[in-house]
Amino acid sequence: MVNYLPVPAGTGDSVPAHLHDLIDPSDLGPIERVPLIPDAARRHHHVFVPADHRFKAAARFLQALWREDRDLPIGYHTDSLGKRRRRLGSCIGTSAGEQGTNFIHPDIVPVVARALAYREPGAVYDVDRLKTNLLSSQPLTFNLFGLLARDLALATRFMAEFIPGLMKDVTDLAFEHSPGRGDARFTQDGTAFDVVVRGRSETGERLFVGIEIKYSESSFETVPRFSPRYAAIAPTANLFVDPAAAALRANPCQQLFRQHCLAATILDQGLADRAVLVLIAPQHNTLTATAATTFTRHLRDPAGGPIPFIPRTLEQAITALAATGLTDHARALHRRYADWWLVDGELQLDATPSETNLFVHPRNANRTRPRPEAQPHRKAA
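RESULT FIELD:
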């Protein structure tokens, strides 16, 4: 198997210029980092969530702009106690969600319907969140891989662009997959991959590519209970510098550790000849980039070990789709998830106070907000 040098998520713009131009012809180039969004602007677009970290706040803001530009009805968020319900600009209304408007191509909607109908026992889908939450990584997963699931020849071309030299043919693509949740032959818990790509190498080996997809997540989510199986799997997997390291079982590494162990059991059970673990996250999600870097330090040989760990950016995945021939779809993905110049334009950072009325009280903002076409950098959808 070819050894792969991981490209750490979040370190520079590794997308070739000619491919970047395919999805973003604005000639503005990549943005250095996402901006801090003023509270007044977040409130105006109904996306003020105090707990949001910098990237999540910007991503939520971008999703609100996407919704507004399409005149989609605003959705609602209900607190964990089920008592407080408020409008949230990064969600769409239930009726719009049922029509599949959270998915950026109509051919993805039946892929989602089939995935839900035939979901594996124990698969975790929050269906309402999938259909109405614009910020969630679950709809992103389908938006990114849904068209590929319908056409395995297209998926083969995508994998050749995304991870060159790995896979000759794609034979299967599945969502929210585990070979056996709760099964003692594996990790005996609910660990799963967002996407699984199976195929053959040039030499005929059966390949298993487990993919984890992040968008605004911090990699500091709730840590689940670890089954005793990890104490048996980790020392024999030949993956980790110190298989007993407490850091592997804590954030930000614990999910990648669990998935790496699950991939090891897939090889142990003879379900594949080779396996690869891939993480896809936005370039500017620095918290997830840190998680990838931290996890890599715990691996004996990240690129050439028994199960290579390959971090990739969302931007790389989108440009791989463009190179595959799905240029319009790639542009739509870029506009939805990674066009930070839209946020820059909405903030009107280049305008004078008289143009922006920065000092108007937020409740009067509707009276003075300029139309999108008058804002610098903001492009048509």
